[in-house]
Write a structure and sequence with these properties.
about 210 residues, D-Maltodextrin-Binding Protein, domain 2, 2 domains, 6-stranded mixed beta sheet, 5-stranded mixed beta sheet, 11 strands
Length: about 210
Amino acid sequence: MINIALPKGRLGEKVYAMLASCGYGCEQYEKGSRKLVFRDGGGKVSYFWVKPADVPVYVTLGAADVGVAGKDVIDESGAEVYELSDLGMGKCCMCVAAKKDFKDDKSRPLRVATKFPKIAADYFLGVGRKIDIIKLNGSIELGPVLGISDVIVDIVETGTTLKENDLTIIERISDISCRLICGKAAYSFKRAEIDVLNEKLRGCIK
């Protein structure tokens, strides 16, 4: 049996529909149900719903053999997992943004507001810029607007929120999309089964 961690919400339901279409359906599944675990009666696959940010944790600890998580979630978690496929869903990008008149004062650390402290720290370490991270949980755009940060590091999809707050992208860090991930131990013991699932899933990606 392959154990699969799916992110709660519309994305997880979309991924489940894709998996069901390529032969991994489950009769216990009920859309909209509050049930967290459901299993195929034939013993082929089991699913469980988890908070999106927790998917890499369940996969790393072996509770799930594979899971679906955004690239942002994977990078921020630092989880040591294999990325098997890009599912092409939830496309956006991780960016550095600032006010349109921003000028970097390199005589002091750059103040960075973000929900992604690890991603921000790794990026600025890579470009050799010292920073002070301001961890926020929402409305990141307010950082530069209210003067508590110089820049933000955040996910950008359409850019509308940035424009409405007079911010602009100054650096693009990485492309973000949903990935099929696998735990290293699981891949050692269930490689054949996981490879078959991965290939079938790729065949369903448009």
